[in-house]
Amino acid sequence: MRSHRPIYTTAGGDGHMRRAGGYGGRVSAGPQPEPEPGAATARWPRLIPGLVTIVVAATAAVLVAIALLEPPGWVLAVLCLLAALALAAAASVSRSVTLTVLAGVLAVTSAVGAAALALGARADASGGAAYDFPLVVGLPLPQAKALFQRHGPVRFVIHQAPYGTRGTVLRATGYAPDGSYGPGATITLLVGSRVPNAASSSGG
User: Fold this and answer.
1) What pLDDT, on the 0 to 100 scale, is given for residue 56?
2) What total number of domains does the chain contain?
3) pTM metric for this prediction
4) Fewer CB atoms inside 10 Å of the end CB: C or N, the chain?
5) Cα 48 to Cα 35: distance, rounded to the nearest angstrom
6) Confidence of residue 54 (pLDDT cuts 50, 70, 90)
7) How many whole angstroms separate alpha carbon 38 and alpha carbon 28?
């Protein structure tokens, strides 16, 4: 008996079999599986680098343009915060590490700016006036303190030196770069600690 070859179905659907000489018809292709909906989403991050560059450049351009207008500091702080929120939302959609890092930088910048503005406002509320730093070197400590406290309370830090006349101011620091100070400033005084000799005192 002859062995039977497998039966093939032609594309035309005529149902004939070819037992010898090979099969000359076309085999109809089976149904192709439809692409899963998540396949396009998985390829989405590959399309992002160009968009990331555009977003970063646009954000930088807007912030620089606004900074050139010299707005109040709180306006820049608020804009940095809004830009950070917008970039964080874009980063969550695009899964971009670059946008995430930039959003974090802008958020930190906004926080630092707000803190600086708060400290500046507190300094202005405390008085804001500046006075010339008095010359107290060589004066007794009580007199030096009285000179510093003429314009308001200040904080004193006293250091004892192993030299110099006892109770006499040898050095005073705590002034601003322009040589001024104000109420609430911290004044550091270096005071002598040596007691004058009795002989020199009697001779004088």
Assistant:
1) 76
2) 2
3) 0.38
4) N
5) 22
6) confident
7) 29
Token duo for residue 169: 């101011």
Report the C-alpha gap between 111 and 108 in whole angstroms.
Answer: 5
Q: 167 and 141 in contact (C-beta within 8 Å)?
A: yes
Tokens read off for 170: 């040898």
User: For position 144, which CATH number holds?
Assistant: 3.30.10
87/100 Cα distance (integer angstroms): 7
Of the candidates 175, 177, 178, the residue with the CA atom closest to the CA atom of residue 189: 175
Q: What is the predicted pLDDT for the residue at 187?
A: 95
Return d(Cα 109, Cα 98) in angstroms, integer.
Answer: 17
Do 99 and 139 belong to one domain?
A: no
